[in-house]
Design the sequence.
């Protein structure tokens, strides 16, 4: 009794503290709930009751909001949270099999999410935005890429080892101000970190500390070359830069010593000794990195980067995301200054109209027109919102831009504020992007200190402030009216437009909502002129578009290409073609709102109109390449599962219609479909398209309709009982061929004992016990396991 | 603002919705999720209209008008999208519009209401309800094979409610039986002859007399009753019961002429000229030679239209075994009533407005655990056995206990439910989108005034707004998201705590039967007439 009273008192005290920090208004509900969950790892009932007692937030509001957003838990979670990314790229690379493997490793029973010891809680997350490392698993703050189902146990052990080790972190000697011998750049976007860049950087600091070599270590944002990370670039004055790709921490020392000499005699001597000693003790590790000179042609790096055009990602790999000086040296804030000194707000808006820029969030509404509408409103209060609620599985453009170029986006928002007469800005960033949130917050702080934000920006008469609002796990909040509802402290349900937010938005005031990428293009347009921007691209779609290229290509990554580039160029030239000798089947563009375009249409130019006439849309720019092993029915089922789970539940067509569509797909996918189901599905899909209230419901049928349009025969095959790609679990069987050498690896790794242990004999899979986890196939050394 | 709706031009103030503009032109657009004085957040999507400029379908209840707008409110395409919205809602709707017992009763008797009235001790009202559909409750209370009891959901707990014996009970008391027999309307002076006094003839006579007609029943035998008297043994149907019920008809002022053999000649010369209409309830045609001589057959060889009881001769109708051999007396009774209605339609010159199947949402069988939800409203335990034996039937105390076993599976808002009305209007097919699994039905009855059945909810959120508008401390709120979103009382509180002062407005505002009053009885004023067809019941207008 007394302990539970104590517990309640603690909870109340904690809630009191949180409320003092975030305020008592209804709009504080999300930040308060996020803080409570941060503290307790779930939302204790007593905490919610106490919030209602001491704030204006009603029980009805707190319950409806807390139960709406996917981020919140109502049951205590384990000490560590395992998030398995189920984004598109991860899905096509088998993330569900990984999820199941971890669940087995934790001995979770059906419906359980936390292991019996309360150590780990297993969750699925829509997308971690590390698509090039797929499949990705994140345990607390540590990200693991390229996880295989058979690695599940090892992964958990590794994590536990790491989480203990992190308690006695070593500190390295900081740089003393001696003459710089050069500069070493290391990319530190989320995915770079996940693939080991942080370790590379640590190892680099270690080597430098030990050797006394004095070079400037520069942390740069995402380089986009996700397929080649960890990436290190060495710059010496007067010499072309040298890139090292796929570099490992243990290889850093050799690389550094090739380029730089230790500073003093003693340092040099010690280095040699220690190094010799290392060599003697352990075998020298195999060299895995590749070295390219920056001016060398025909390298994978050049192939990847050459067809691209950097506007939103200008200066990528060169500037440090957190350094305002770097940004300024490279022309940062000169566009804003130019606006203040020689352009009227109307001229700025005109310039954007002239540039032909269209919103990069998906629908492609003309940006200048939107600015003009907001500008024309007579209200005193107006808002600028940067939409960084990038929820599409398979897309990470916004994350990369926010992490790597926070100042550029801030400048874009400031210019928009100046043009439209707004004085308050909000960054809406999804909570799954902690690094982006942090970098933006840091950048905002710096801008305030530098007088770039606040009263009289850069000594002009213009005042502007920006704050960060964290989303809470609801894809639908990417829809602008839902986003506004969420900022106002409501459930993220969209409302009918008109009235459009540009006229009646946040708190009823005119609100300009643009996508992150849209804002990041603005400074370039002002600096280089609308005409220059308009000269890039196609007649209806100007400028460049950032895509997250992932899936079955050799070189995935974040790319910025001119509008009008063909799908084939992207896949073959930039992506280096299909990996491991399979054949190119289709690309999925635009995530769950987009659709699949078959290889036969690969010469199509990418722009807003062409995509929409092919039945898909730009979306926010996920571009997943599929090969012949990808099943279109499975992929469609995957997307619809996602949109269906993200429906806000308001309008009939989306709430019930998408659910019924998914049931039909499930029926077809499991081989129980009848020919009539396909007609039925197609018709229902059209009705959901016509009848839904917002963009989420209206576009949710796109994956279904495009795949029926281009791959109807695959649906028909499933109805006849077989999956041509060998992907749909209910329709496939695993068989071991006569080539089996009896190595027993599969038998040892089979989690259900479906393969008997028979050394030197041909193994067999028991179909009744087989759960189709695919582990046997991946561990077999001679590919003797067939999937039919 | 000037706009065009269905080619009609109208000027309305800015801020008006398309729905309001259409209404002011007298154009009807269906809508469920919007309410007077409530903010319009379109969710049900049955109010869809087409914006001819953009070619898009828009929810008219929330769309503000703008200058030059061109709206179309009716077309096959619009009708289809509205119907699909309804069908999707129905696919997620769990509940019976009418109780299964009532649907399976050939006479469509309102059984659950009879049960509730008996359980409450209102025996006379119970009898009145029974007589709405069944003219001979005492007789049928002995001999009806009771298909209703086979459909009773209570079967999945223990035994079905003894519906048949309860019906007999309502008419078992002499005094009660003789009450409320006089014609409901004034004497209309028109004369109808009924040939035959079996169950169909007696039933037709009963309803015609109630409507104010002067009725004469002609019977060949010396005593009225037909097959009831001559084919059913005394131990199945005591003669005193038969006599007692026939006495009611006589007491109503029906002339009962016995020992009357009606030949073709007498029929043509006396019966037809002497009456405004004639009903042939002559029983099996093989035993009665009258018919072939009086009625010309249609090309298929039929003398009667089995659906409508009419013949090829105006003013002459038929019912009972004369039309087709009836296995159950209750069917003959039902058809007697139908013939009476058709006769009335003919004599008053009314043409039935519309004829089609009436909409019923129905749960065919209960899922595990659902019966417990129903049992929240009923007495537990097996059937009550009348302690004085079957022939004697229930005592009032026994009847009240037995009637209390009824599960109340009929909807409390069968008339005002907009989902039902519109499903009827748009001929929605409730099974078109039904999924592999349906939701499990629940009932929240822990409230003094109302019942909440979440599986009938369409998630429009009107009640959420209403509880907030009436400043409920807790109120109702949306919980969850997507397909699994539902309305509930926040933070685990009870319904009573959630709706403390706005119960009336919530029930009134709720467009379906999800929120209803505990003692709501909408069916009582419901005067829809039904007739039986091969496909079930069809509605013939409302009168």
Sequence:
């Amino acid at each position: 009794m007394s302990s539970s009273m104590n517990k309640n008192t603690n909870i109340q005290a904690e809630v009191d503290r949180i409320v003092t920090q975030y305020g008592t208004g209804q709009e504080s509900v999300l930040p308060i709930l996020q803080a409570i969950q941060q503290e307790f790892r779930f939302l204790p009932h007593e905490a919610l009751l106490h919030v209602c007692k001491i704030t204006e937030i009603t029980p009805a509001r707190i319950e409806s909001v807390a139960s709406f957003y996917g981020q919140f838990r109502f049951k205590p979670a384990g000490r560590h949270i395992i998030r398995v990314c189920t984004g598109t790229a991860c899905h096509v690379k088998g993330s569900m099999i990984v999820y199941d493997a971890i669940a087995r490793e934790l001995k979770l029973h059906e419906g359980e999410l936390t292991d019996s010891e309360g150590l780990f809680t297993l969750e699925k997350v829509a997308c971690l935005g590390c698509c090039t490392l797929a499949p990705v698993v994140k345990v607390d703050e540590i990200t693991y890429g390229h996880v295989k189902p058979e690695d599940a146990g090892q992964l958990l052990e590794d994590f536990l080892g790491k989480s203990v080790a992190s308690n006695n972190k070593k500190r390295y000697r900081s740089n003393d101000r001696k003459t710089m011998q050069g500069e070493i750049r290391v990319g530190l976007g989320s995915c770079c970190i996940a693939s080991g860049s942080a370790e590379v950087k640590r190892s680099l600091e270690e080597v430098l500390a030990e050797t006394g070599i004095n070079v400037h270590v520069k942390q740069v944002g995402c380089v986009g070359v996700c397929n080649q990370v960890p990436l290190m670039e060495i710059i010496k004055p007067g010499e072309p830069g040298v890139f090292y790709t796929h570099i490992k921490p243990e290889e850093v020392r050799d690389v550094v010593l090739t380029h730089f000499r230790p500073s003093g005699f003693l340092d040099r001597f010690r280095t040699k000794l220690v190094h010799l000693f290392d060599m003697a003790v352990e075998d020298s590790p195999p060299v895995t990195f590749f070295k390219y000179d920056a001016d060398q042609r025909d390298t994978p790096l050049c192939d990847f980067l050459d067809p691209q055009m950097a506007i939103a990602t200008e200066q990528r790999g060169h500037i440090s995301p957190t350094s305002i000086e770097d940004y300024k040296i490279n022309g940062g804030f000169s566009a804003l200054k130019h606006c203040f000194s020689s352009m009227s707000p109307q001229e700025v808006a005109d310039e954007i109209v002239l540039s032909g820029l269209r919103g990069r969030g998906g629908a492609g509404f003309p940006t200048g027109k939107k600015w003009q509408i907001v500008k024309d409103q007579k209200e005193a209060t107006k808002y600028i919102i940067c939409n960084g609620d990038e929820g599409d599985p398979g897309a990470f453009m916004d994350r990369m831009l926010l992490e790597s170029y926070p100042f550029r986006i801030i400048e874009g928002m400031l210019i928009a504020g100046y043009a439209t007469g707004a004085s308050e800005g909000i960054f809406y960033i999804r909570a799954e992007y902690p690094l982006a949130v942090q970098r933006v917050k840091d950048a905002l702080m710096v801008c305030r200190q530098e007088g770039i934000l606040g009263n009289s920006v850069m000594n002009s008469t213009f005042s502007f402030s920006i704050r960060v609002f964290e989303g809470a796990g609801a894809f639908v909040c990417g829809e602008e009216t839902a986003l506004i509802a969420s900022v106002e402290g409501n459930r993220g349900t969209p409302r009918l437009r008109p009235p459009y937010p540009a006229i009646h938005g946040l708190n009823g005031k005119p609100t300009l909502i643009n996508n992150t990428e849209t804002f990041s293009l603005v400074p370039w347009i002002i600096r280089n002129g609308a005409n220059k921007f308009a000269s890039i691209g196609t007649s209806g779609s100007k400028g460049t578009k950032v895509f997250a290229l992932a899936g079955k290509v050799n070189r995935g990554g974040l790319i910025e290409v001119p509008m009008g580039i063909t799908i084939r160029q992207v896949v073959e030239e930039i992506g280096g073609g299909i990996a491991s000798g399979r054949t190119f089947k289709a690309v999925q563009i635009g995530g769950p709102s987009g659709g699949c375009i078959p290889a036969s249409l690969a010469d199509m130019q990418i722009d807003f109109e062409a995509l929409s006439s092919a039945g898909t849309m730009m979306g926010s720019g996920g571009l997943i390449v599929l090969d012949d092993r990808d099943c279109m029915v499975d992929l469609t089922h995957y997307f619809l599962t996602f949109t269906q789970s993200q429906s806000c539940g308001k309008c009939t067509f989306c709430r019930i219609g998408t659910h019924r569509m998914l049931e039909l797909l499930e029926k077809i996918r499991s081989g129980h479909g009848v020919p009539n189901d396909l007609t039925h599905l197609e018709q229902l899909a059209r009705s959901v398209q016509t009848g839904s209230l917002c963009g989420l419901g209206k576009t949710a049928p796109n994956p279904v309709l495009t795949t029926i349009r281009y791959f109807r025969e695959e649906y028909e095959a499933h109805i006849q009982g077989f999956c041509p790609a060998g992907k749909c679990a209910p329709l496939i069987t695993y068989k071991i061929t006569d080539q089996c050498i009896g190595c027993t690896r599969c038998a040892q790794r089979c989690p259900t004992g479906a393969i008997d242990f028979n050394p030197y004999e041909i193994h067999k899979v028991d179909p009744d016990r087989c759960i189709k986890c695919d582990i046997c196939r991946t561990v077999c050394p001679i590919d003797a396991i067939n999937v039919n | 603002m000037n706009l065009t709706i269905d080619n009609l031009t109208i000027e309305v103030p800015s801020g008006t919705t398309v729905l309001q503009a259409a209404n002011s032109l007298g154009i009807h657009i269906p809508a469920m999720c919007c309410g007077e004085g409530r903010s319009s957040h379109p969710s049900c999507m049955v109010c869809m209209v087409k914006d001819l400029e953009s070619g898009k379908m828009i929810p008219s209840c929330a769309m503000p008008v703008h200058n030059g707008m061109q709206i179309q409110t009716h077309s096959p395409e619009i009708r289809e999208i509205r119907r699909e919205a309804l069908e999707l809602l129905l696919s997620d709707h769990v509940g019976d519009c009418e109780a299964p017992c009532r649907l399976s009763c050939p006479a469509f008797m309102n059984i659950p209401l009879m049960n509730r009235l008996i359980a409450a001790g209102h025996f006379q009202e119970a009898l009145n309800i029974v007589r709405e559909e069944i003219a001979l409750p005492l007789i049928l209370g002995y001999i009806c094979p009771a298909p209703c009891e086979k459909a009773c959901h209570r079967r999945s707990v223990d035994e079905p409610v003894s519906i048949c014996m309860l019906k007999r009970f309502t008419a078992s008391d002499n005094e009660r039986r003789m009450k409320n027999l006089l014609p409901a309307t004034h004497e209309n002076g028109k004369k109808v002859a009924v040939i035959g006094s079996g169950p169909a003839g007696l039933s037709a006579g009963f309803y015609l007399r109630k409507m104010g007609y002067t009725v004469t029943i002609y019977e060949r035998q010396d005593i009225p009753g037909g097959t009831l008297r001559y084919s059913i043994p005394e131990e199945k149907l005591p003669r005193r019961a038969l006599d007692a019920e026939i006495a009611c008809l006589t007491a109503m002022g029906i002339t009962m002429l016995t020992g009357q053999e009606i030949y073709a000649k007498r029929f043509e010369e006396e019966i037809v000229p002497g009456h405004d209409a004639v009903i042939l309830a002559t029983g099996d045609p093989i035993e009665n030679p009258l018919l072939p001589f009086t009625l010309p057959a249609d090309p298929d060889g039929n003398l009667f239209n089995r659906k409508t009881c009419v013949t090829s001769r105006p003013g002459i109708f038929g019912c009972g075994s004369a039309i087709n051999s009836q296995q159950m007396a209750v069917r003959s009774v039902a058809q007697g009533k139908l013939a009476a209605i058709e006769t009335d339609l003919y004599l008053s010159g009314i043409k039935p407005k519309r004829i089609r199947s009436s909409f019923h949402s129905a749960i065919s069988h209960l899922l595990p655990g659902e019966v417990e939800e129903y049992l929240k409203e009923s007495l537990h335990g097996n059937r009550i056995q009348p302690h004085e034996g079957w022939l004697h039937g229930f005592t009032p105390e026994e009847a009240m206990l037995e009637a209390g076993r009824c599960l109340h599976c009929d909807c409390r808002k069968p008339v005002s439910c907009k989902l039902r009305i519109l499903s009827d209007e748009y001929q929605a097919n409730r099974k078109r989108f039904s999924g592999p699994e349906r939701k499990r039905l629940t009932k929240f009855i822990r409230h003094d005034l109302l019942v909440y059945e979440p599986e009938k909810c369409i998630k429009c959120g009107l009640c959420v707004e209403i509880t907030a508008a009436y400043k409920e401390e807790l109120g109702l709120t949306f919980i969850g998201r997507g397909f699994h979103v539902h309305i509930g009382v926040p933070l685990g509180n009870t319904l009573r705590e959630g709706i403390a002062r706005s119960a009336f407005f919530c029930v009134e505002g709720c467009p379906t039967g999800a929120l209803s009053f505990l003692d709501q009885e909408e069916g009582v004023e419901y005067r829809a007439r039904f007739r039986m067809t091969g496909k079930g019941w069809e509605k013939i207008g409302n009168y």
Notes: The first helix of chain A runs from residue 2 to 22.
